[in-house]
From TrEMBL:
Gene Ontology biological process terms, A to Z: xenobiotic detoxification by transmembrane export across the plasma membrane
Name of the protein in its database record: Guanidinium exporter
Keyword Manganese: no
Localization per Swiss-Prot or TrEMBL: Cell membrane
Family as reported in the entry's similarity comment: Belongs to the drug/metabolite transporter (DMT) superfamily. Small multidrug resistance (SMR) (TC 2.A.7.1) family. Gdx/SugE subfamily.
Taxonomic path: Bacteria, Pseudomonadati, Pseudomonadota, Alphaproteobacteria, Hyphomicrobiales
PANTHER family: GUANIDINIUM EXPORTER, SMR FAMILY PROTON-DEPENDENT DRUG EFFLUX TRANSPORTER SUGE
């Protein structure tokens, strides 16, 4: 269950990271509220997960999920570059997340 909570926390991290782009400097109320909601949910879920997982592993996996998800959403939603080198770096992050999960 802790790993599931951590995964959800990472997804909400993606939500608030992408949400920042849509807040337009926190001048748009609905995107700002949704972004702040995602921030709170992400940290609360991380806090629940670290009750049962090592903090270093949980934090690295949380940020890794957030990083990979945010990059992929940036490519898909915002037209960010999808070069081979960027995708290779994402693969390295995924490999690191998997390695941490396997060793925890």
């Amino acid at each position: 269950m802790a790993w599931f909570l951590l995964f959800l926390a990472g997804l909400f991290e993606c939500g608030w990271a992408i949400g920042l782009k849509y807040t337009d400097g926190f001048t748009r109320p609905l995107p700002t509220a949704l972004t702040m909601f995602s921030m709170v949910v992400s940290v609360v879920l991380l806090g629940l997960a670290v009750k049962y997982l090592p903090i270093g592993t949980a934090y690295a996996v949380w940020t890794g999920i957030g990083t990979v998800g945010t990059v992929l959403l940036g490519i898909w939603l915002l037209g960010d570059e999808a070069s081979v080198s960027r995708l290779a770096c994402i693969a390295l992050i995924v490999a690191g997340i998997a390695g941490l999960k396997l060793t925890a």
